[in-house]
Amino acid sequence: MIEIGSRPGAPQDAVDLLLDCHARIRSFARLAARIAEQSGASDREVAESAARVRRYFALALPLHVADEEESVLPRLAGRDPALDAALSRMEAEHEGHEEDVGRLVALSGALAEDPGALPFLRGELQAVADRLVRAFDEHLRAEEEVVFPAVRKLLSSEELEAILAEVRARRRSP
Q1: pTM, 2 dp
Q2: Residue 161 CA, distance from chain mean position
Q3: Which domains, ranges and CATH numbers included, belong to the chain?
């Protein structure tokens, strides 16, 4: 199996949970790039890795976007003009990622079904994965440097608990 990285340790609060999501976003974007670079992986390895990438970006990433836009953003909006600008940028970038994420889901789905297509899809997969790795690196870093510290600094323990409960509830929903 083509391996992905992970952050050790259990989340302590809502921000830790969101940071864990960021680690997974980075890992799965890089896994997509590694799939494109593969020349010695078996069809089974390519299919399984591609299925994991497809599943992550089709199911988990939208939940994370909802976490930020529905749980974090409304609680921080209006507290500081610079923070509002960062929140606006966060939302715009989420929308800006949609086309490449959709294409990555489609390419990964095609490879999960037919890993023998990798030589034909390699170039497009590499281009999409590379764009997403760069875009996510910048996007996630900005959230980690501006938005997440504001969550810890500006929100009450009750608000943090509410975010955590909402994040967990999204993952339990059918």
Answers
A1: 0.90
A2: 22
A3: 14-172 (1.20.120.520)
